[in-house]
Amino acid sequence: MTEQVYDKAVSLIDDANREDPNIEIIDGEEWPKELIYSHRMSDMLERYRPDVDDVAKLAIRGQHIQRWKSPRDAYPMDRKGYHLWRTDLYKFHAETVADLMAQAGYDEESLERVKKAVGKKSIKKNVDTQLVEDVAGLVFIEHYMLAFEEKHPEYSEEKWIDIIRKTWRKMSDGAHEFALSGNLKLPEPLIPLIQKAVATQEK
Fold first, then answer.
1. Alpha-carbon separation of residue 32 from 16, 19, 21, 75, 163 (angstroms)
2. CATH 1.10.3210 is held by the domain 3-199
3. What angle do CA 75, 25, 142 make, to 5 degrees?
4. Structure pTM?
5. Other Cβ atoms within 10 Å of 102 Cβ, number
6. Exposure string (b/e) for 140-172, b if CB count within 10 Å is 16 or more?
7. Which has more confidence, 158 or 74?
8. Over residues 35-60, mean pLDDT
9. More exposed terminus of the chain, fewer Cβ within 10 Å: N or C?
10. CA atoms within 13 A on the CB side of 31
């Protein structure tokens, strides 16, 4: 596909995320929450795997697209409700990104590839899906883990180690190496916990 088609797809994804009513203040500037998330995903990809093709880049850019349209509290607040929400959410993201890419002019093969990656199909086997998980994990650690920790002061050290391990398990060896090589800005107050969780992570 041409650069023009890619740029149009990026613009459509950004326009969709710009509608987010939830706002974050970054360096004094207001950002729609999912727009800044998508930019952080793309920025991390450029640091981690700048060699990937445009279809993979669009999967990364759009993996949280319009997330606010499927709120967690619209589902039962139990484990079954959580899993149903996640399943529906992945499908919604996948189909929304694919629809926008189709509008931009992408072919069916590219659309199916993105739907599989954003829909979180075949993690550990599908390279695009694994890439989405890797970048999402790296972005969570660098940008969101500390705020999440501050939001849950009731969590014990054991609980936190479990959360870190679950994130770590979804990531590839390459992402692990990237995270620990100094390329990632680790949340300083949580570095001891991260090191402890990783050191005792079961292979």
1. 10, 7, 7, 24, 26
2. yes
3. 75
4. 0.91
5. 15
6. bbbbebeeebeeeeeeeeeebbebbeebbebbb
7. 74
8. 97
9. C
10. 15
- Three-state SS letters, 101-166: HHHHCCCHHHHHHHHHHHCCCCCCCCHHHHHHHHHHHHHHHHHHHHHHHHHCCCCCHHHHHHHHHH
Coil, strand or helix: which one is 74? helix
C-beta separation of 135 from 45 below 8 A: yes
pLDDT digits (tens, 9 = 90+) for 155-201: 888 888 888 888 898 999 999 999 988 889 988 888 888 888 888 66
* Tokens representing residue 121 in the block: 């199909």
Give the whole-angstrom CA distance, residue 118 versus residue 58.
Answer: 10
Query: Residue 202 above 70 pLDDT?
Result: no
pLDDT at 54: 96
Domain spans in the chain, listed from the N-terminal domain onward: 3-199
Distance, in Å, from the CA atom of 23 to the CA atom of 32, rounded to the nearest integer, reads: 5
